[in-house]
Amino acid sequence: MLTVNFLLLGAVLFCIGVYGVIARRNAVMVLMSVELILNAVNLNLVAFALMHGAADGQIFALYVIAVAAAEVGVGLAMVLLVYRNRRSIALDELSEMKG
Amino acid sequence: MSMLAAEGVSVAQNVGFGVIAAGMVFAALCVVTTSNVVHAALWLVLVLAGVAAQYILAAAEFVAVSQVLVYVGAVMVLFLFGIMLTRAQIGRERGLNNTTWALGIPVAVVLLGLLAWVIIDAFDDETLPDRGPAPTEAIADGVLSPYLVPFLAISFILLAAAVGAIVLARKD
């Protein structure tokens, strides 16, 4: 298999995730786009692990999966709190701290 | 760059990769463009399952199983609960995008062009070696000796995140 295949797939997923983070207004959708970005990074790490024949990349990928799970848990709890206080999770309405 | 004809490239493996990759890219595009939040979550399941399949193609079976357990199992349930708890109606919804959403397209396209150029420049015809599945033993050895400190840090992060999520989301 060509290395470029995996890396290009990772790049495409990453860019789609970046577009989602920029374009989406709903906080849950933004979190989903962040998941796309993290998975793109994991694909690259696993491809590099295969390339070098070492398990290190897979270990990093596992750590990223763990951190992503923690991030989603806290992120959704915060979204829930925002929804409870304001009855809306539109990110552009959260502008009190703009200064 | 020769996608299929390079030395040491298995055509069947490449075709499998291409089919799964095309499905993943389509599903990912649906995640960021659909106007139904629940459908976006279900498309995301397809992307995450596709990533797990690619891990198996890349001979990383332990990571693939973890991906299925953590992402497809736990994180997606969390997302669906998040959607249900923050939305009154299920169905198509207006106003999911920012007014400046079109700005994201040039940003993503330019970023993709840059990344693709760098990647193709660096790894033009390099093939991944055909190693067979990596032993899970090697992962265990790595986690428990050179990467032990990050492993402990991860356990603290998970504990802090669990406690923090409960504190944030509880009602009193």
What does this protein look like?
The complex is a heterodimer of chains A (99) and B (172). Chain A is mainly alpha-helical and 99 residues long. Chain A is built from three helices and no strands. In chain A, helix 1 (3-23) runs antiparallel to helix 2 (27-52) and helix 2 (27-52) runs antiparallel to helix 3 (56-86). Chain B contains six helices and no strands. Chain B has helices at 11-33, 37-57, 61-86, 104-122, 136-144, 148-169. The interface between A and B is large, with 72 and 95 residues.
Cα separation of the termini of chain A: 52 Å
What radius of gyration of chain B results from the CA coordinates? 20 Å
User: How far apart lie the N and C ends of chain B?
Assistant: 61 Å
Structural class of chain A: mainly alpha
Question: What topology does this entry show?
Answer:
The complex is a heterodimer of chains A (99) and B (172).
Chain A: H1 3-23, H2 27-52, H3 56-86
Helix pairs in contact in A: 1-2, 2-3
Chain B: H1 11-33, H2 37-57, H3 61-86, H4 104-122, H5 136-144, H6 148-169
Helix pairs in contact in B: 1-2, 2-3
